[in-house]
Amino acid sequence: MDVNLEERKNKVKSILVTLPAPESEKSPYFDLANALNLKIDFRSFIHVEGVSGKELRKDKIVFNNYTAVILTSRNAVDHFFRVCDEIRFDISLDFKYFCLSEAIALYLQKYIQYRKRKIFFGKQSAKDLADILKKHSGDKFLYPCSDVAAETTEIVLKSNGIDFTPVILFKTVVSDLSDLAEVFYDIIVFFSPSSVQSLFVNFPNFKQNKTRLAAFGVTTQKAIKDAGLILDIPAPTPLAPSMTMAIEQYIKKIK
What we know:
The protein has 2 domains: 5-45 and 175-254, Rossmann fold (3-Layer(aba) Sandwich); 49-171, Rossmann fold, CATH 3.40.50. The protein is built from 9 helices and 11 strands. It has helices spanning 28-36, 53-58, 74-86, 102-107, 126-133, 151-159, 193-202, 218-226, 243-254, and strands spanning 14-17, 39-42, 46-50, 68-71, 96-99, 118-121, 141-146, 164-174, 187-190, 212-216, 233-235. It is elongated, with a radius of gyration of 21 Å.
């Protein structure tokens, strides 16, 4: 689809970010709103629901058969410990925790005494984590994930010969957005293909018209294009490594 993006560059006054509102007042979105006099709203287009211990038993995955867990998000941490409580799995002190990043590893303190456990973490990528996991080849790894788990992570783990078992502990569910039916924004910002899907589940007849769409990440950008929509603001880029920077640069070019 040939589109003249220049003709779509109308003044921006309002932005909808398809994420929960930031917990901190130091969010770069608030800085952006103040700097450019924008109205920025937050609304998660998707949410997570946990899989019950009862449902998990149907998959016949026995936690006692595993010596370690791979944790790639805070959601994975929360639902791993929730399910452990539900199925009454007593986690031994020898159990190992392998986290995608140090931030996720530190989040474990919400549930366990950090210094008394065997905790390992990568720098942020699945490749970094796989290099660490290979040093513990004698372990059997449990991999808590969602029903839309990142395929790249599983591909990396398999290609490195990691003995792991994925187990779906939480599901990504489309949120009810019916109250937004008559609300319009100059820019809508997406961060996942699931959020793009949610848009059409809630509004099957959605017409983009003059609404600009911003997307972070290759898979999200592809989802927008596959839906026949126009991608106006991609991120990250060499000049805009963050979504807020990409939006700021876009708006400043219009003025």
